[in-house]
Amino acid sequence: ADSAGAGNSANGELTERWRGALMNNYGTPRLPLVRGAGTRLWDADGKQYLDFVGGIAVNALGHAHPAVVEAVGRQIASLGHVSNLFIAEPPVALAERLLQLFGRDGKVFFCNSGAEANEAAFKIGRLTGRTHMVATDGGFHGRTMGALALTGQPGKQEPFLPLPGEVTHVPYGDAQALAAAVTEETALVIIEPVQGENGVVVPPAGYLKAARAITAATGALLVLDEVQTGIGRTGHWFEYQAHEGVLPDVVTLAKGLGGGLPLGATVAFGRAAELLQPGQHGTTFGGNPVACAAGLAVLDTIAAEGLLDNVKRQSERLREGIESLGHPLIDHVRGAGLLLGIVLSEPLAQQAQHAAQDAGFLVNAPAPNVVRLMPPLNLGDDDAAAFLRVLPGVLDAVNGDGRSGE
Ligand code: PMP
């Protein structure tokens, strides 16, 4: 079933060259892709796929969206990059625009990835004068050393110990455990509003609000990692805005923000916004005008095309459609907006991912029993319907034909 494995095809050839020239840190990716347009992708052999994983939430608007293509072309042709010794319009405009969407005064630090956005949050935490940090079991915050220290997945940390910081990990969604771990010495608490990499885990209602109260009581900063949930993914500009009474001190963003270009942001409010002093942090490409122009195009398009409403609508459609299939391998669907996890009744998610790929649909499997869906925010009725049509056959194939040994 692994079309990327064979040597006598364009897919196989690109895969062999990948093996020869790139480090093996990802293992060998399954599929060499050569073109994208909207919700569609094509592999090197010309096979077409519907993209229901969106580069893991990177593609808010799908592939080659005209607004992003136009903004990037216009910007790189006029002012490509200026370094942080100078000011340019796009990062200023994007920061203003983000703050407007947060509806609060604050300050933005631009960088190039989610891990880097969390590294800046880590440093802001240190500048409170406290060193202890609290994060969640199963949480994912990135692969750089500071972000990895906050990540709650011991298998990813183990080869790289010791990691910086004094980080306590607590069970996700458990407000009591959080209250017990946070003290007057705690610099920050970092939480994902929905744990994406851990299998689309949604915390109980009231969890973020409790986290806000607990951190406020001890003077710890509340950092929300919205790298995966932000920029409309859940049907809100930022997922915390769906939770009443939650105003974080820091929000980290990346993925969907850049419309496919590397762009991260650390957004801080109140005293957290004033902690970094001149010379204490930076990155060469931070605030790159081309990436920021793409970011502005993404935000403008989400607003202009009413995509937050589309996310809510397609989310309902997919959820109801999937659950009403009544397929024996489907237990239930969880998540928020277009960050959905199909929870299987058996740990066959990877096999389902492969069967879906054979059927021309790209999904992924963040946990052994969870198939994750993260289609573009502008997913259309036809694409949602096509997915619902093909899903039963995909799951039948997993159940019945021995693929589970793959
Ligand atoms: N935080 C969260 C919640 C993420 O899902 C990810 C990426 N999966 C990251 C941080 C790290 O982002 P990046 O890969 O851009 O460093």
From TrEMBL:
<feature type="binding site">
    <location>
        <begin position="114"/>
        <end position="115"/>
    </location>
    <ligand>
        <name>pyridoxal 5'-phosphate</name>
    </ligand>
</feature>
<protein>
    <recommendedName>
        <fullName>Acetylornithine aminotransferase</fullName>
        <ecNumber>2.6.1.11</ecNumber>
    </recommendedName>
</protein>
<keyword id="KW-0963">Cytoplasm</keyword>
<dbReference type="InterPro" id="IPR049704">
    <property type="entry name" value="Aminotrans_3_PPA_site"/>
</dbReference>
<keyword id="KW-0663">Pyridoxal phosphate</keyword>
<keyword id="KW-0055">Arginine biosynthesis</keyword>
<feature type="binding site">
    <location>
        <position position="140"/>
    </location>
    <ligand>
        <name>pyridoxal 5'-phosphate</name>
    </ligand>
</feature>
<dbReference type="Pfam" id="PF00202">
    <property type="entry name" value="Aminotran_3"/>
</dbReference>
<keyword id="KW-0032">Aminotransferase</keyword>
<comment type="similarity">
    <text>Belongs to the class-III pyridoxal-phosphate-dependent aminotransferase family. ArgD subfamily.</text>
</comment>
<comment type="pathway">
    <text>Amino-acid biosynthesis; L-arginine biosynthesis; N(2)-acetyl-L-ornithine from L-glutamate: step 4/4.</text>
</comment>
<dbReference type="InterPro" id="IPR015422">
    <property type="entry name" value="PyrdxlP-dep_Trfase_small"/>
</dbReference>
<keyword id="KW-0028">Amino-acid biosynthesis</keyword>
<comment type="subunit">
    <text>Homodimer.</text>
</comment>
<feature type="modified residue" description="N6-(pyridoxal phosphate)lysine">
    <location>
        <position position="255"/>
    </location>
</feature>
<feature type="binding site">
    <location>
        <position position="283"/>
    </location>
    <ligand>
        <name>N(2)-acetyl-L-ornithine</name>
    </ligand>
</feature>
<dbReference type="InterPro" id="IPR015421">
    <property type="entry name" value="PyrdxlP-dep_Trfase_major"/>
</dbReference>
<keyword id="KW-0808">Transferase</keyword>
<dbReference type="InterPro" id="IPR015424">
    <property type="entry name" value="PyrdxlP-dep_Trfase"/>
</dbReference>
<dbReference type="InterPro" id="IPR050103">
    <property type="entry name" value="Class-III_PLP-dep_AT"/>
</dbReference>
<feature type="binding site">
    <location>
        <position position="284"/>
    </location>
    <ligand>
        <name>pyridoxal 5'-phosphate</name>
    </ligand>
</feature>
<feature type="binding site">
    <location>
        <position position="143"/>
    </location>
    <ligand>
        <name>N(2)-acetyl-L-ornithine</name>
    </ligand>
</feature>
<dbReference type="InterPro" id="IPR005814">
    <property type="entry name" value="Aminotrans_3"/>
</dbReference>
<dbReference type="InterPro" id="IPR004636">
    <property type="entry name" value="AcOrn/SuccOrn_fam"/>
</dbReference>
<feature type="binding site">
    <location>
        <begin position="225"/>
        <end position="228"/>
    </location>
    <ligand>
        <name>pyridoxal 5'-phosphate</name>
    </ligand>
</feature>
